[in-house]
Specification:
There is one protein chain. The protein is built from 20 helices and 20 strands. It is α/β, with parallel strands linked by helices and about 600 residues long. It has four domains: about 200 residues, P-loop containing nucleotide triphosphate hydrolases (Rossmann fold); about 55 residues; about 230 residues, Rossmann fold (3-Layer(aba) Sandwich), CATH 3.40.50; about 80 residues, Valyl-tRNA synthetase, C-terminal domain (Helix Hairpins), CATH 1.10.287.380. Helix 18 runs antiparallel to helix 20.
């Protein structure tokens, strides 16, 4: 018997002061759906998700939730007034007996539940909001950029959680690898319309390009038809005016149809320009170290960076990546060792904290007020790579409207703030780019363009990112922080590093605090040789194994029908794929149970 949809939107229309965000939108989310929600920055992804969550009321249409269905929405900027700790906020909807879930999730997301919200960073507050959603375990999860402010270790943990859940979920993310690994269907918002494809994000770009090619073909055919009909209207209508008025009206309809075609938004007209060429040797560090009190950030580390290198820095949050960057660029002195720079360095920096932007000032004022961009005596021009440009014209290159140019920065979305930072960065000539988390909040098309620009850039790039796909596309070397102050250099990007790293010291799970301390904390919480999470996992694995065995039995019974392939080939294919998936998961669960059982007995 078919199950009712978890959520259904019908004929949804929504307008915020100007053009409609959506018009006549229909959407269905089924039980167990794993959906990527994609679209350009500003296309309405977050707004649609809030409509799905019931937080934004549409102008017209209906939102129908299946009776008894629970929906969880991850807030981008959660309000924590009245809560003493992040843990209190995350556990606010749970019974006291269920608070252990917050401890488990906090361990995976690497934040301290005892932190005072007033002293927490934006990233810690977002992780607490994500922990709250995961601990509540709703039947439908709505996740808006859940990987922002997560390091690679926490992203891998979150992937495992979402891969094993039975809940349905809808994901907004810029992280291609995350979407590829988790989704089975794609919702694409494009110019107010929402299309759905029953394939995961891995097939999205091919699908998008096919749709756009078909649109271009239809537009070209319509243009030719309008041209031919227009010629007839001029040359042949005068002698047959009365009997051809219908054809004239048809021509007008064609023109109306053509004008009604919404042109696709172009990509940002970003450009990088190298200044004077640097020396062949850009940076050389010899046995540099750094500590803060008793906490050792970096043991003796050496690296030689040459002109044209693209060096990525990876590791858990708080491990010291930005500190190492500051030492390499000369902003911070090492405790020991030395850093030498080559000649003619011109450095441009993308700051993940976005301290270069004043939220109370307009976009116009942020650019005019930048010393690097100021044009003496001109209140409406900025210097862009040595050439004066009108402020609004330059902002339009980065897809900002004139109205936005005069609006405060605080009104921008995360992706728009990232684009504004790129506008400031790219106005300057440079031969050394320092990019600290540049990929957060950028849409896929802008990420593609940034990747291409970095590929063509003649200078040197130092890059901090947790986006595995972006690292693979850009980096020629990877500096990996492997715990306890150790950092090592590997050739290639993230995937290359994974194949080269020592098996006994996996950096993506390396703790930012000493391993001895972590193990002591884990044992104190779990009462044995297993961590808190592992001990709880050992208790729940038998139920997971029994559930998988039951699902395998049902699938095998279904596939035993010899007529199924001929009668319902699609159902046969899906059942076969599901059976292989359940069998692989059962094998992995049994292996995990044996491993944890052995460790628990030590």
């Amino acid at each position: 018997m078919a199950r009712a949809p978890l959520l259904q939107l019908s004929d949804i229309s929504l307008t915020f002061g100007g053009d409609p965000v959506f018009s006549g939108l229909d959407l269905v989310v089924q039980p167990g759906d794993r959906v990527a929600l994609v679209g350009r920055n500003g296309s309405g992804k977050s707004t649609l998700m809030k409509v799905m969550a019931g937080l934004v009321e549409p102008d017209r249409g209906a939102r129908v939730l299946s009776p008894g269905t629970t929906v969880g929405y991850m807030e981008q900027e959660p309000t924590m007034d009245g809560f003493a700790t992040l843990g209190d906020f995350a556990a606010s909807t749970l019974d006291e007996a269920e608070r252990y879930r917050i401890e488990m999730v906090a361990e995976g997301l690497t934040f301290d539940p005892d932190t005072d919200p007033a002293k927490a960073s934006g990233g810690e507050r977002r992780r607490a909001a994500l922990a709250k959603l995961l601990a509540e375990a709703p039947e439908l999860m709505l996740l808006d950029e859940p990987t922002n402010h997560l390091d690679i270790r926490a992203i891998a943990w979150l992937e495992d959680q979402l891969r094993s859940t039975r809940a349905g979920y809808v994901l907004i993310s810029h992280d291609r690898a995350f979407l590829r690994n988790l989704t089975r269907a794609t919702l694409w918002i494009d110019r107010g319309a929402v299309r759905r494809q029953e394939k995961g994000f891995a097939d999205f770009e091919d699908w998008r390009d096919r749709v756009w090619d078909e649109e271009d073909t239809q537009r070209h055919k319509l243009d030719r038809k309008i041209k031919a009909e227009g010629r007839w209207a001029v040359e042949g209508i005068s002698a047959r005016r009365k009997r051809n008025q219908g054809r004239v009206r048809a021509l007008q309809q064609l023109r109306d149809d053509r004008s009604g075609m919404i042109r696709r938004q172009g990509t940002a007209a970003m450009a990088l320009e190298q200044g004077s060429q640097s020396g062949k040797k850009v940076i050389e560090a010899e046995a540099i170290t750094k500590s803060y009190g008793d906490h050792e950030i970096l043991r003796p580390f050496s690296i030689r960076i040459g002109r044209g290198d693209r060096v990525a820095f990876v590791g858990p949050n708080g491990v010291g990546k930005t500190t190492l960057l500051r030492m390499l660029t000369g902003e911070l002195a090492p405790d020991a060792g030395r850093v030498r720079h080559g000649t003619n360095l011109e450095i441009a920096v993308f700051d993940q904290a976005r301290a270069q932007l004043d939220g109370d000032m307009t976009l116009w004022e942020n650019l005019i007020g930048s010393p690097d961009m100021r044009v003496s005596g001109a209140a409406d021009q900025v210097m862009v790579r040595g050439t004066p440009r009108h402020v609004v014209g330059y902002l339009k290159d980065f897809l900002f409207s004139e109205a936005q140019a005069r609006a405060p920065v605080r009104a921008l979305s995360g992706g728009e703030k990232a684009r504004l930072l790129l506008a400031k960065l790219m106005a300057k000539q440079s031969n050394l780019l320092v990019l600290d988390e540049p990929t957060n909040d950028l849409d896929i098309e802008t990420l593609d363009l940034l990747q291409d620009l970095l590929g063509d850039y003649d200078g040197t790039v130092l890059l901090v990112s947790h986006d595995r796909d972006f690292l693979d596309r850009v980096a020629s070397q990877t500096v990996a922080f492997e715990g306890q102050g150790r950092a090592a250099v590997y050739a290639g990007g993230w995937t290359d590093y994974q194949s080269q790293k020592p098996a006994q010291t996996p950096p993506e799970t390396a703790p930012a605090t000493p391993a001895r301390t972590v193990r002591a904390q884990d044992r104190s919480r779990s009462g044995g040789g297993l961590s808190f999470t592992e001990a709880h996992r050992l208790k729940t694995l038998p139920d997971d194994i029994a559930r998988l065995e039951a699902e395998i039995s049902k699938l095998e019974s279904l596939l035993s029908d010899p007529e199924l392939f001929t009668r319902e080939p699609v159902k046969f294919r899906k059942a076969t794929e599901a059976l292989a998936d359940r069998q692989a998961r059962l094998s992995a669960a049994e292996d995990e149970w044996l491993t944890l059982t052995d460790r628990a007995e030590v």
